[in-house]
């Protein structure tokens, strides 16, 4: 009776005009190779981060290579600028 736990990113989606990247992670528990439990967590990554009034690219260095590749493709300078403009407009 061996229990194992596996964590996999089972869904990566690019959503909306500002190319938010949603990452769903599944934690799978197996007993003797048969799945007995599956739980999900989700996070959303935006192209830029504002700290103390200054904009910077979102740090994706801790993300998987696949997520980094997707972010690097969809987060063009135009997308980042549009996202920053939208957030700044909402703060006024």
Task: Give a structural overview.
The protein is α+β, with helices and mostly antiparallel strands. A 3-stranded antiparallel sheet has the order 1-2-3. Strand 2 and strand 3 form a beta hairpin. The protein starts with a strand and ends with a helix.
Q: Please count the helical segments.
A: 2
* Secondary structure tally: strands: 5
Could you give the order of strands across the largest sheet?
Answer: 1-2-3
Order of helices and strands: EEEEEHH
Radius of gyration: 17 Å
pLDDT averaged residue by residue: 97
Fraction in helix: 25-40%
Strand content: over 45%
Outline type: elongated
Biggest beta sheet attributes? 3 strands, antiparallel
State the end-to-end CA separation: 59 Å
Which stretches of 5+ consecutive residues score pLDDT under 50? none
